[in-house]
Structures are given as C-alpha cells and as structure tokens.
Amino acid sequence: MKRALMAVFLSAAEFFLAASGQAQENNRRTIALSPDVQQNGIPPREQTPSAMDSTKNRGLDLSTITFSIGDTKLRHGEDIRGAAAASDCDLMAIPPRILNTHSKYAGDDHTKSNIDQDALEERNHILQPIRNSIRLLTREAYTQSGTASLNRSRANCVSKNALRWARASALSTALSPDAIMTRDRFIAEIALALLKAKEAQEFTLEENTAFGAWLRPMAKSTIDYYSYRAGPKSKVNNHRYWAGLSVAAIGYLTGDHDLIEWGQQSFNIGVCQVTADGFLPLELARGRKSLEYHVYALRPLLALLQLAQNEGDNIQTKCPGNLERLTKSTMVSIRDKSVVERIVGIEQEFHVTETSYSEPLRLQSLVFSFY
Predict the structure, then answer these.
(1) Level-2 CATH architecture, domain 2-370
(2) pLDDT digits (tens, 9 = 90+) for 227-252
C-alpha cells in the first residue's frame, strides 16, 4: 500500500516541482531587469530595503526567489552558505509591530476565489517586506554548514535577529481578521526556525525569556480569536490549521503544553473533516481555487504531525487514515486537475510556488517524511 502511494507521490512531485521550477525561472527573468540585481543578486547592504520600507521592495521578492539569497554575498564579503562568524551575522530588517491587512479576494465572491487586483497589490505592498525578512531568517536557520561550529554560528545569527525582533514586539498587534490569519503563517515560520536553531545552539536565559514574552501572547491572541471571533468557516478550515501550527510551534519552543494541546486539537479538526474520497468539503467550496486550497490546507496538517514527531511527541488522531487519504487525493489531483474538476464542476486554477515556503513546509519534504 505504501509503495503504491509513494509511486503516486513521486509522479505528482515530479510534475509539481517542474511547475514550481518554471515559476522560479519566470521570476528570475523578471529580477534580471533590475541593474542592481543584475550585478549583485540583490541591492548592496546600504540599499537593501527594510521591512518597513515596502515601496522600494516591490521589485525584489526574497520570499520566492530563494536562489537570490543563497547565491548572494550578504555579510562583509562572506557568502551566506559559507563560513561566517557570529560577529558577521547580517542584521535582518525588523518586521513592523502593527499589522493591518485585508483580504485579496473580491468582497462579493462567496467562494473567495476571485482576486481583486487592487486589493492584492495593496496587500503585497504591506506584506512583501515582512516575507523577505522572514525568508532571510529561515534560510539562515535551515542552511547546514560543514561543521558543528559553523552551524552554531548560524543558530546564533538566527537567535540574535529574533531577539531584536522580540525586543521590538514585531507583529505583536494584528488589527484585522486577515492580519491575524496572515500573522499565523509568519509566526509559524519564525517559531519553526527558532526550534531548528535551538537544535544547534541552546538559547541563553535572556533569549528564552524574550522569546516567550514575545510569542506566547500572540499564541494566546490567536486562540482567543478562533474561540470567540472567527467566522464559522475560518474556525475549522485551512486558517485554523495554520493557526494550530503556529500555536503548537510556540508551545514546543516555550514548553507550554496548553499551546501544544490546542495545536493538536487543530490537527484533529482538520483531519476529521476528510471525506471518504479524501477531500476537505470547505476547501472544495473554493471554486476554481479548490485544488490550491487543498494544498494549502494539507501543508500545516502534515507539518503539525512532523513537528510533534521531531519533538518526540505523538498526536493522538481521532480519525486514523484520514490524513493519508487527503495526502493521496491531493497529490493525485496535482498531477491530474480533472480529479477535482469532476467533483466541483469548475476548471481549476493552480499556481503554487514551493520556494515561497521555508524548507520544512515544502510539500516534497512533508510528504516524504509522512511516508
């Protein structure tokens, strides 16, 4: 059975990664138009936009162009993939304290599948600099060097930057429902990067205290939102799974078992909705984006399972076999969109760039780990 499922995955993964590679190549061509980028990969340090200066940042998307980070000299002439002393650690732009965003979808579209281009541009204007900062942090966390000492230097760089963000209360105030839900993915990536850094280098008491004081209130704010204010769909659809991953990651990072339990409850809320044929009804209701949202929903569910396993924990699923069915159906549908199109009766738009996610959230890694 697992051999057959693996064959399905490999076929879908080959197709999926080829599509992602084409998207990355298209972005590569776009970036080549900039003289600064053409010469150096990204603008030099003094011209690199901060997370607060989104106007200058539109032409450079570090969240999807991960090769531009890996191939660019960021620290005093040292390549980011090479040896770097802690003193050479690049100071990554601090995300803003206040986040206020609104949906990119047309307000009169109940399927939330029709994008309002003006709303999308305004949203990206706010979010792209934040994505760039987080991608720099996660790249530092997951790039492995040849020796333990270099990995510790990388870990120190991650914790040093995260400490600056914590002291600035980055992302601590979310003013809209969309901002809360958007922040969940950002914080999930940050907390997972910190857990990775902690494997190589234990945090100091000051760092542990600061991270807890920064992240735990955001986790509790997320729980409060989903308990009392989220709409009936958001409480149980992909938004809740990303919230669960964010809260659980903070729980493992800070040793807060209540947060871990809430994250695992979110996992069960998701997997127990999977139908007999392996789909999520609320994501099927997303019209021409149904397949995209199955991929988006599957990702945090697999990541929650992987996170628990990495921490020596087990999620007690109330619905065994459901995640396996969802994974198989989603991967088959990536290879053949007509599977979903026959169910929803609408041609599917499918545009997913894997490089917009940090390493542990990429589908290939998650599905291989699952099987």
Answers:
(1) Alpha/alpha barrel (1.50)
(2) 999 999 999 999 999 999 999 999 99
